[in-house]
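ESCALATION

Customer reports they have been waiting on this structure for their group meeting. Please prioritize. Original submission:
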Amino acid sequence: MLYAFGFERVGVVVGDLYFIDPDPLPGQASPERGVRLELRLFERGEPAGSIYAARPITIARPLWRVDLLQDADAAPGTFDRTHHHPDFDGWIPGPRVFVEELSADPLAWLAGKLSDVPGLLKETGVSPGELTEADAAGLRAAVPEITDTVRRLLERVWAGELGRPAGGSGSGAVTSARISWL
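Update from on-call: job pushed to the front of the queue and completed.
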């Protein structure tokens, strides 16, 4: 499932995720599941044909990512693989960064990051010119709705409705998989 919150030049996308890492960190070889959130650039195209035509919308390059993941077999709310990627090289995320506060209270940590747009930009190395003031204000205003969406997606992952392997069964001999919009 994919949710998108668009502002002026950036937006937030949120989706469920099932992941088998082909190069796992020690002790993290089992499948992971949870919710991924990315801050992305958005691009609006011009309507083609007439004023009534649909407008093309492109969800473009990622600026920041947080993965609220846990071992797929762990009890709900474990968050033992929860991390973020504060930097990207184009489309490629930097290494996983584990933060104790993020694993302890993911929604509060996420709300704090999304509410502090200048701090988030500084942490990611993204130029403040990438976002407009309308982006920052819109993002801050949408934080309760975004975190509520993340919470509801997590509940559906924990209930087994989302964040599942293809076909809904175990990973078997699969050594790499990513089942998600993001």
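Sent to customer with the following note: Helices lie at 100-104, 106-115, 117-124, 133-158.
Escalation resolved.
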